Each structure stands twice: as C-alpha cells, then as structure tokens.
Amino acid sequence: MALSQSTQLGLATGLFGVLSFLLAVLAEINKPPYGTPIQGQNAVVCRFPRDPSVALGALSALAAACSAALGVLAVFFPYGGRHVPREVLFAHTPLYVFFHVAVGVTVAGAGTTVWATASEAMLHARNVHREPGYACPTAETGVLGGAAFLNLDAMLFWIVCLMLACNVREDYFDDGHGGDGGAGTGIEK
C-alpha cells in the first residue's frame, strides 16, 4: 500500500527534524570543554583537539531548515492537484496559531544552532590571544543541546500544522469547493 502525499511529507519533515536533533546532540557531546593554551611571546595560542562539533552543528542547522521547508510545503501543497486558498487555511484559528508558533520555534532553534556553531568555529579559527592568562574556552556548554530540543519541538509543531491543514482541506472540499461536487474524494492522492 502506497503512502499518501501528506504522509510522505509528514514523514520527511519528521525525519529531518529528528536528524537535526541527533546531530546537534552529537555536536554537544563531542565538543571539547576547552583547548590547550600554549604560551608564546606576548600571546597565548589555543590548540583545540580535532572534533566534529562544528560540522555536526552546521549539518544540524541544515537539517532543521529542511524540516521547516518541508513543513511549510506540507501545509500549502496542492494534494491531488487540488489547491486550498491560503485565506481558507489561515481562517482556521488553531492552524493560524500553530503555524506562527512553528515559524517562531524554527527561527529560534535554527538560529541558536547557527549561533553556537559559528561561535565554536570562530574560537577555533581565531586562536591567538593577547591576554597572558587566557584559558582557551570553547563555546558555551549546553547551547547546542538546547538548540537540539528547539529543533525537535519545531518539527513537532510542523507535524501538528500538517494535521490541522488536512482537517481544513477535508472541510473545505466537503463543503463543495474545488469542483468535485462535494464528494471530497481524491484529497490524499
């Protein structure tokens, strides 16, 4: 039995959301707590152990963006070639609220992931410091872990939006819109 288009988009949204969560958690786990300070003349050079935290953080942010893009697509996609106007979708108050919350949580999660990853990358790249007692810290501990949960929450909000959009579609086509004579068939082809 083939999966419907809405199920496929929902699963893809969920897959990228979970992937973003896992990658950010792995980035947090693999991030070293500090680098090794090497005293030089008038400067401290920080040497950080090789770790995949920057790459994992970047991939997590990319996966979060893909999850959000698929979530938006799933809400507005014309399933079975039948389009529901945006005004009709957003006239449904729960969908309107959940959509805007999903956008906000997505921006917070992806933004936090990018910020923590960029901070870590800058610390690795700019490793010469003029302060004699510099301890070579890494980016703030726990930020990528928190971003991981925000990305997971965003994915869940997008799934709820998809379910609410499916309900609005059914109501819209059951009321005789869309040229199917009110039969409401073929929505999920």
Structure description:
It is a multi-pass membrane protein. InterPro entries: DEAL/Modifying_wall_lignin1/2, DESIGUAL. Belongs to the DESIGUAL family. Keywords: Membrane, Signal, Transmembrane, Transmembrane helix. The structure is a single chain. With 189 residues, this protein is mostly helical. It has one domain. Helix 2 packs parallel to helix 5. The chain starts with a helix and ends in a 15-residue tail after the last helix.
Please sum up the structure shown.
The protein has about 190 residues and is mainly alpha-helical. The protein has one domain.
- Compute the CA-based radius of gyration: 23 Å
Per the principal axes of the C-alpha atoms, what is the gross shape? elongated
Across the major sheet, the strand order is 1-2-3
The main sheet comes to: 3 strands, antiparallel
Keywords: Membrane, Signal, Transmembrane, Transmembrane helix
Pfam family, one: DUF1218
Membrane topology: Multi-pass membrane protein
GO cellular component, one term: endomembrane system
